[in-house]
Design brief:
The protein is an alpha/beta fold. It has 10 helices and 10 strands.
């Protein structure tokens, strides 16, 4: 692809303006490949022509398609198992206090493996434990469609224990034998919403016990990360928990969020 440098920079700026995602120099070939797919799909002759198409689209549909094409959606069930072990203990802790619901927001939920893992983890703690009340959000409408439907290839479920697979998933039939789908009773516990983390305020009304935001803020500027953390603090209950990705850290950056375990932070009661 022979787009000029100015067009490449314009695409990066457009993505940043609409999603907060920072795409560095090392992402140039990645951007080219993703954008070229949209150029081809629309039957256009160049990236420059495509960019003009995006700017002249008052509906914003093509901008959304561009974000869908570039947003990465790599995840798996029960990824970073220590986080779900912590969630088990937290559910038990809340049950001991008589709490009947556990409010969880999975921000940047991608194709849904994380919120389904959270729901199943809480359900597995037994009838006396809080009922999971989960909001799962992502900027990508395409990822959210997949998440809502809750169907996955067999290789996606390889690290799901066999007893969990039998209890909470159903195997596909006929032309869908290579798929498993999360059962309806689990899907019904989750509200999927499109939320752009770079454009607050967010439609989250209930105070949250837990916010997962794993491997999302690494794509944001420091300023946007800090602003997002402040918003998360305002949405957490006193003593609520923020869970980041294993490569992310707030140590020494926020006095109100105390590290509990690796990439897990608890909001001080006085915050």
């Amino acid at each position: 692809m022979n787009e000029d440098r100015s067009v490449y920079d314009k695409v990066r700026k457009l993505i940043f303006r609409n999603s907060g995602i920072v795409l560095g120099e090392h992402k140039k070939s990645f951007i080219e490949a993703r954008v070229f797919k949209r150029v081809k799909a629309l039957g256009l002759g160049s990236v420059d022509e495509y960019f003009q198409w995006v700017l002249s689209d008052p509906s914003g549909v093509e901008t959304e398609e561009l974000v869908n094409a570039i947003a990465t959606n790599h995840t798996q069930f029960f990824r970073e198992p220590l986080h779900f072990e912590f969630l088990k203990r937290l559910a038990d802790e809340k049950a001991a206090k008589g709490q009947r619901e556990l409010n969880v927001w999975c921000a940047g939920c991608s194709t849904g493996e994380e919120p389904y893992s959270a729901a199943i983890t809480i359900l597995e703690q037994g009838q006396g434990n809080p009922r999971p009340n989960i909001i799962a959000s992502d900027i990508s409408t395409r990822a959210l469609e997949m998440a809502r439907f809750g169907a996955y290839s067999m290789d996606k479920s390889q690290n799901v224990p066999e007893n969990i697979l039998k209890k909470y998933f159903q195997k596909g039939r006929e032309n869908a034998e290579s798929l498993v789908r999360v059962k309806k009773e689990v899907r019904d516990l989750i509200q999927f919403r499109q939320i752009n983390l770079a454009q607050p305020p967010f439609p989250i009304s209930l105070p949250q016990d837990v916010i997962f935001c794993r491997n999302v803020m690494i794509y944001f500027t420091t300023e946007n990360r800090m602003r997002l953390v402040e918003i998360y603090k305002s949405l957490l209950k006193p003593g609520g928990v923020l869970i980041l990705g294993s490569s992310e850290s707030l140590v020494g950056q926020d006095q109100d969020l105390a590290p509990v375990e690796a990439a897990i932070y608890r909001l001080n009661d006085h915050a």
